[in-house]
Amino acid sequence: MPLVDWALTCDFAYFDTTGRLCVIGADANGLRTVTSGVHRLTLVAHLVEYRDDPLEPILALRSPGGEWRLEQEGADYTRERQGSSLLFHLPRIRLSELGTYRFELALGTAAPTMLELPIAVRELRGQRVHLHGAY
Questions:
Q1: Rounded to two decimals, what is the model's pTM?
Q2: Can you give the residue ranges of every domain in the chain?
Q3: pLDDT (tens digit, 9 = 90+) per residue, 60-104?
Q4: How far apart are CA 13 and CA 15, in angstroms?
Q5: DSSP line for 106-135
Q6: N or C: where does the chain have the smaller number of CB atoms within 10 Å of the terminal CB?
Q7: How far apart are CA 44 and CA 101, in angstroms?
Q8: Which of 23, 19, 15 is nearest to 42 (CA)?
Q9: Sheet containing 3-10: which strands, arranged edge to edge?
C-alpha cells in the first residue's frame, strides 16, 4: 500500500522530457491562500512504498462549512503518475465560500493512505492604484 511522503498544492506541475517533476507556484508555508472564485490548481503527492499497485484514488473537498464534495476523475480532475510522483490537475475548481477548504485524498482501499491539503479563501477585493503626475 503506498504512503504519502509529502504533498503540496501549486499553480501547475508537470513532468519534463527527462521525467523530472517541475512545480510552478508552490507555497513555501504549505497553506495556499486564494481569492474566492474559480481556480486552476494541481495537487502533487510523492509516494513511498509504491510498487505499481493499483491506486484507486478518491479525491474529496470539504468546504469551510463542513460540506463534502467528491471530485470525479475525468470530469473534475485528471491524474498523472511518473515513478513515485502523482499529480492531480484540477482545471476549474470553484472555491466561493470564505474560510479554509481541505482536499482529502485516499489511495487504495484496504488501509487507505489519507492526505489533507488546506486552502484558505479570502474575499476578492479591488486593488487601488494611485498614479501620480498622470493626466
A1: 0.81
A2: 3-122
A3: 899 999 999 988 888 899 999 898 899 999 999 999 899 999 988
A4: 7
A5: EE-SSS-EEEEEEEEEE---PPP---SS--
A6: C
A7: 17
A8: 23
A9: 3-10, 37-48, 85-95, 78-82
